[in-house]
Structures are given as C-alpha cells and as structure tokens.
Amino acid sequence: MRISLRFVAATLIAASSPALVLAEEASSDAERIGRLEDQVKALEARTPSVRADSSGLSISSPAFSFQFKGLVQLDGRWFTSDSVPQSADTFTFRRIRPTFQGTVGDFIAYRLTPEFAGDSATIVDAYVDLKFSPAATLRAGKVKGPVGLERLQSGGAIVFIERGLPTELAPNREIGLQLQGAVANEMLNYVVGIYNGTTDGADARATDNDGEKEYALRLFLEPVEGLGFGVAGTFGDKEGFAPRAYSTVDRRPGVTFTPGTVYDGDATRISPQGYFYRGPFGLLAEYITSKQELANGGVRGEVTHSAWQVVGSYVLTGDKASYNGVRPASPYQLGKPGWGAVELALRYGELDLDDDTAALGFAPADGVRSMENFGVAVNWYLNNNLKVALNYNQTSFENFSGPDREDERSIFARLQLGF
After folding, report:
1. Entry pTM
2. C-alpha span between 211 and 216 (Å, rounded)
3. CA gyration radius for the chain?
4. Which top CATH class is 48-418?
C-alpha cells in the first residue's frame, strides 16, 4: 500500500503541534518570570531598608541614609577633701546627646549632635562632609579641634570618666573648614584646617572672637592595627579676649589668670601623641605645649604652658582593648553565662605654667602654678551599650609662692548608656 509523502508530513505536523505550543508557552512564562524578578529587584533597590540594633536606628537606600544614635551618662560625684564645698557632692547628667547622621547622594554626609545635659541645650557637633575619596574629605561646620589625642576619642569610649590634663590645653570644638583623609594604604591620617579659633580647652563661640583665624595640622600614622603615633598643632593670632582658666580632672577650678589678662598676639600649640593596644592591654600617651602672647595693662609678654599624661589599661576578662573602647565577647545576661568585660586603668599626668605667667602679672602671685593627677579606674562593660565606671582621683597643687593648695581627692561613678 502506498502512503503519500504529503500525508506523512501532515500527520507529523499534526502530532508535533501540541509540543510546539507547550514549548512556546514555557518560554513565554520564563521570560515573564524573569521580567517580574527584574522589576522586584528594581523596586527593592528603591525601597529604604530599616534596621534597629545595638548600633542604633538606621534607614538606608541607594540615594539616602539616616542613623539615630544616643549617649546618656549619669554621674555621681563625691569629694573627700575638706577644701571642697559639700555642694560639690552631687548627681548630675554629664552627657545627654542624641546624634543624627547620614548621607545624601553619593558623596555628601552630615552629623548633628545636640547636648541636653546642663541648664541649657547646645550644639556639640554640626557639620557636612563632601567625601570626594578616602584620601580627601572636606568637612565644614562645628567639629572637634584636631589636636588632643584623648579629646578626639568619643566621650563614650574614654577610659576615665573625665579626660586628663592635656585636654585643658587643646581646643575643644572649632568652627571652620578642614580637609582630611587617609593615604599611604590608609596608614597615614591627616587633617588640615582653618577655624575661627578658641581658647585652650574651650568651645568656639558662635561668631569669631576677634576676626583672626587659627590654622591646624595633624599627621597620625598607624602602621599596624593598634599602634599609632603622630603630631598635631595649631597656630594663629588671638586678640583682646581673656584666656580660659584651667580645670582639674574633676572639673573643679584649678589654674586661674589675673583679671584683665587678654590674648595679644601669636598663639601656638604642639602635641606629640600616640597609643598602643595589644590584646587586653592599652596605653595612651600625649604631651602638649601652648605658647601664648598675653597682655595685662601695660605689660606684654610670651608664656608657655605644658601638660602630659600616660593612661594604661588592662581588660581583666581578656577582651580586646582599643582606642574606640571595649566590646565584651560574652555580654552580661540574666540567668545565663556571660559577665561582660572588666577593665582596670591607671593614669598619671601634670599641667605646668611658665614662671613668667606670675612674674608678668598674668596669674596671681600666690596662685596655682602646677597640677599633678593620679587616678585609678574600674570599668564594667555589661554589653556594647551599657557601662558602669568607678574612678578615684587625687590632684596635688604647687603654687607660685606661699603655701600650696590642699590636695583634692574624689570618687566619681557613672552609668552610661550608648547606642
């Protein structure tokens, strides 16, 4: 029996048609699924992500990020010296600082930190960054002066409840512009800045004191993790406003200047500094000199003040010490293993005034010439957010003339919450 070729071809086509249709439909479904997946990915890229953890609250998207952080410190302060009035024994909030920071676009960042501790609210940090590269960021606004090593540490990361005597000679907050970055494989950090300028240990005022400007340079090398050293300084001109009195580490009156004493010319600070952290051991050391031209009445002269300190710490629980603070490997938990981290620290430092300060009449003839501080600290880090601290400090004084001021001894305690 003959079968025509046309019949066979028609039969084969009819038999294969359903398979072809199914293949086309499957291909079409795969393409639709692919397009839907692309659309979902694009939508996810545009939708902000929200995260809340021990580091704070953050919202981020490719074009914008926002983070809310906070630091609260409640202190108890007691003095055992008869020369300190009983009113100095007190509970007080040392810091209540919410921080708002984030990014706008690819290279703009910002930070705003108000301060609510004390009798009135102030702005601690307020600046905008233009991040051109890791080697070059332009920062404008109110910032920490780039001089003191311990001053540049976060207030929640310092080992002692209050910073040491060198911070009294360093600028606190400055208002101006600075270029900063990390070069040489990010081993060398630098800051070059121009500011309105401020007195030793003080914040810059909202407007310039005298129309003069102050310039700063900081170079800090960290060749390996945990080892860093460098030098920082400022130079400029100050005219017509009074220098700030220097406080003890307990934030009590220390060194005073004669009424009528004002800045009258060049002012220069230089500070070599460094730290070393290896395992549970930490060491921070800094020295600073502040050379100033002063005037009082018809007398004018140049004086140089200096301060230094060494802070050694050891984490008894074996946790890692660092410049940015201790993070316990086994946080404290109710009814569960883990006690956090315990740290023991010692500090010794001095602040000295030039003898000419009194000889020229810029300081009282029987006023304090130098202060020596010895301190012991015990810190308990329950977790990354909660810290309990206890400090003992003894400050000794030497006067320019006459009987020396009585030693001051204090016990400070702190409960700190940071996130």
Report:
1. 0.86
2. 17
3. 31
4. mainly beta
